[in-house]
Amino acid sequence: MSVRVVLHSPSGSRSFLERGLLLLVMLIFLEGTALTLGAASSPDISAQDNTGGHEHLDDHQGIAGSNDRTNYTYTKKAFPVLSLDYHHIQVPFEISLWVLLASLMKLGFHLIPRLSSIVPESCLLIVVGLLVGGLIKLAGEEVPPVLDSNLFFLCLLPPIILDAGYFLPIRPFMENIGTILMFAVVGTLWNAFFVGGLLYAVCQIEGTYLSQVELLPCLLFGSIISAVDPVAVLAVFEEIHINELLHILVFGESLLNDAVTVVLYHLFEEYSGAGEVTPMDVVLGVICFLIVSLGGIAVGAIYGILAAFTSRFTSHTRVIEPLFMFVYSYMAYLSAEMFHLSGIMALIACGAVMRPYVEANISHKSHTTVKYFLKMWSSVSETLIFIFLGVATVAGPHAWNWTFVSVTVILCLVSRVIGVVGLTFIINKFRIVKLTTKDQFIVAYGGLRGAIAFSLGYLLDKDLFPMRTMFLTAIITEIFFTVFVQGMTIKPLVDLLAVKKKQEAKRSINEEIHTQFLDHLLTGIEDICGHYGHHHWKDKLNRFNKKYIKKCLIAGERYKEPQLIAFYHKMEFKQAIELVESGGGVKLPSAVPSQVSMQNIQPKKLPPPVAERALPQFTKGREEEIRKILRSNLQKTRQRLRSYNRHTLVADPFEDGWNDFLLKKQRLIELEKKMTEMSNYLTVPGAIPDSPTMCRARLASDPNAFYNIKASSDGVPTIQVDLASPQSPDSVNMLNEFSKEGATGQSLGQREGATGLGQREGADRDEDQGLMMKPAGKGEKGEGGNKNPGLMRCLSDPGPSNEDEEDEPFLP
Amino acid sequence: MGASQSARTEHEFQDLADRTGFSLEQIGNLNKRFRQLSKNEETLSRQDLASISALDNNPLRAQIINAFFDKRNLRQNEAGTVQVIGFEEFLMVMSHFRPAAMHITEEEREKLRREKLRFVFNMHDTDSDGTITLEEYRRAVEELLSKAGTIGQETAKAIADAAMLEVASTTRGKMEPDEFYEGITFENFLQILKTFDIETRMHVRFLNMDTATMRCGK
User: Fold this and answer.
1) Which family is this sequence assigned to (chain B) (predicted)?
2) Which of A510, A526, A707, A712 should be substituted to probe chain B, the one whose Cβ sees the most B Cβ atoms within 10 Å?
3) CB of A278 within 8 Å of any CB in chain B?
4) Which residue of A546, A651, B20, B187 is most buried, as measured by CB atoms within 10 A?
């Protein structure tokens, strides 16, 4: 039953129910489609009477045009209240089921404690796949060919590669590009020929029953099995947190060897039919390789630039901004595949080229969307791939040949080790940071094979390659061996060898300054030495990029921004958001240094402001500063439509949150005045101006310091209050309670009291203060309810804390 | 060049190679460059370095040139600057940019790290008093952003302040409001750049072979 028929069925069934003039018109209207469908049947009718249904319907549709009345009386039956039509939804339903299964499995693994630290996820997923395949087989059903090559290459692979390409750490990648290319090109070639050639030799040995295997299929098999798989590598390496150098070496190799694999695959597949290779073919193969790889990169770069250029103009329709990036990248992949160029390289190039420009153009929200979508798609794809691999193992016809399989596994290991050691020997002559023996071991051991090899094997023509089944079995075994044995043991081995791990430290502004500093310094030294090394060329390229390309691809003035300033703005922005989110810095993460204020480093200190006078100005000055920063960073969100609109987002939550925040704070200040009369708990204890509390209160948290500088330049005496007081959890908890009751902004008004209370040393005193706070809070509530009806709303309102949660993803 | 003179230079070079760690070939190349820059004089002056046109676009031009004439970088434990440097001093400065050897122990790595960071530190510490003050840091960042136009100058101060705050808070922890952080000492400097792998990053590829003027048929 075709989909079109199914789609028409609702209107068909409706025609039985409604009897009106309107319906007659509709039926006449429907007649056109019914006739084109020929003897189409609406499914519920055919389900009800299987035998005569078709005749009836033919009649029905024939008469429908001429005489509707008779038609109705003729086919009149009870209207089916509930009917089942699984076929209607089968395909999308099953797809959703698979995705759901995959996601649930992923969820499950992370719920089981310690499981994911022992066994890599990829192994578990394959096992799940095996189980699911087994269940399907037990149920007596045909196991569906889930890991179909088209599905794999057109749907499952691109998200993973785009994710990898978009988040590719460009700097280490380019610094090691020579080594990566060496491993990817020469290493893969070596592996293919070594494995293929020796396999052929083994097959010729009497008694293996493999003498019918010829040389070219062997080489083809070698080229399929030799490529390191990016999906498997990513899955395993993400978990072992290896240092950046090794990660980029193995991962970069797995990405770039695609071109070699594609060319070798097509070459050997072609010649297996012809059966003869001339030197001319070899030359053509080399040219083909260059075209496939460079062409792939060119296609990707073109689409990347197009995407960047498009994103220049999306400032008015932010909702579809992320879509452009995905569509352009997918188009790049498809276009490359269309010419049998390397789609993987196209995607990598596209992602890497567009990223810096797109990021400067799109809004923070869109950027978050892009990030989340990429991560979501890639992780679902990855999960599905591994599950499907398991299912396909159960499904496929297998031809197990001990010799062939075991020789394959051994040869793969041997060739990988020889290849890596040999190539490193050559590469180390040119590298400044040499690869140690440990590094070599990890690179060799991390050469995992995966689903790409399986899909390529699956693509082989059965008639041309009678041993396809045996190849597939060997490929699956090799994949299982690498993923299970190597994937599971690599983590303990990394620990055992004490290989340097990745440092998870946040990048500090000092490091960023010195990165830039070093770049210029080294360029300068190279210039003094008088030779043009890679720093020199990098500098040239950077300046060209800044002068011409950025101007074309980045909207507005942002193209002028040097990297350091961009970094600084990002940091500043992040902190400003954190500040608003936490209602003025209550919950600043402890990672942010918050114990030193600008006063401590400024050579000329301002005279310490008087507490009473400083209070109103402090809030005002700081408020102004935060507002300024938010405004300059949020790309003029004010100009956006505030009403709901399908083409824009609902009014910006930052803006909303901010306004709420201000409003509530205004009220709070009023309230506070009254409160001062009522009780002394909530305000700064002005009576004891020299208490340690006040000294503490003058300390500023780190982000406040920026505002402080600016404020002080205006000549406004300011005071900074340290709200993040990790030493006194009590006060923080109190504040949280407060912000739950009232608005987040409320805490801003109250924090003087809280800080004063919380900052005092001594646990006993902390407790004291905590007790004191409670009546104060209650008193305030009652007070607000009585004296200010509007305040009640303010206090019962959940407040902008909800919106703050929405903002949370903006802090990457 | 006469035979006796070349023999003498060879001996000198060997001596320099032992002290600076460069290979003889690299020293030969650098010597050639030195003579080219100094216009065949024995010594190199600031003007000679300033005349390198490729440096014009470098925001750190002045700082780099200063580093070559800074006594602290010439492994003399005294402050101040010199007016001219000889080839040996030139090599000394250059040797800060040599890559690390393949097999080095942890101590050697730490020593190398300190050496390289000391060089950078000295570039920031313009008055050679052992600390980088806020003023000095601001000036360094301003210079770093000097090619960025007006935005650079406006932001430079804020960036330097933020960076200084970061240093103060990571090295000192909590500070009383009347305390004063006078500046980054070298120990602080080491501490904040702990995760910054300078030993693998601060190096220049000194060619073993002089590709520019291949000595053929000599």
Assistant:
1) Belongs to the calcineurin regulatory subunit family. CHP subfamily.
2) A510
3) no
4) B20
Q: At A739, give phi and psi (nearest 5°).
A: -70, -20
What's the rounded Cα separation, in Å, for the pair A205 and A228? 29
The number of C-beta contacts closer than 8 angstroms across A and B is 188
Q: B151, A595: Cβ pair inside 8 Å?
A: no
How far is Cα A527 from Cα A537, in angstroms, rounded to an integer?
11
Strands B84-85 and B184-185: unpaired
* Strand, helix or coil for residue B192: helix
B-chain CB neighbours of A522 within 8 Å are 97, 202-204
Percent of chain A with pLDDT over 90: 12
The ipTM is: 0.86
Task: Give chain B positions within 8 Å (CB) of A539.
Answer: 57-58
Q: What's the pLDDT score for residue A705? A: 38
- The pair of three-digit structure tokens given for residue A61, joined into one six-digit string: 């549709």
Q: Assign A214 to helix, strand or coil.
A: coil
Residues 52-111 of B with CB under 8 A from A: 52, 54-55, 57-61, 64, 68, 94, 97, 99-100, 102
Q: Which residue type sits at A540?
A: K
> What would the mean pLDDT of B103-123 be, rounded to a whole number?
81
- Report whether pLDDT(A329) > 90: yes
User: End-to-end CA distance of chain A, in Å?
Assistant: 49
What residue in B sits closest to A543 (Cα-Cα)?
B57
What does the alpha-carbon distance between residue A573 and residue A585 come to, in Å, rounded to a whole number? Answer: 14
Tokens of A560: 């002028």
* Binary contact (B60, A521; C-beta < 8 A): yes
Neighbours of A323 (CB within 10 A): 14
The pLDDT confidence band at residue A330, using thresholds 50, 70 and 90, is: very high
Strand partners, B85: B44
Of the CA atoms within 13 Å of residue A630, those in its CB half-sphere come to 24
b/e burial code for range A609-643 (CB count within 10 A of at least 16 → b): bebeebbeebbebbbebbeebbeebbbebeebeee
CA distances (Å), origin A266, targets A18, A348, A453: 60, 22, 14
Q: Are the beta carbons of B186 and B118 closer than 8 angstroms?
A: yes
Q: Is the pLDDT of residue A182 over 50?
A: yes
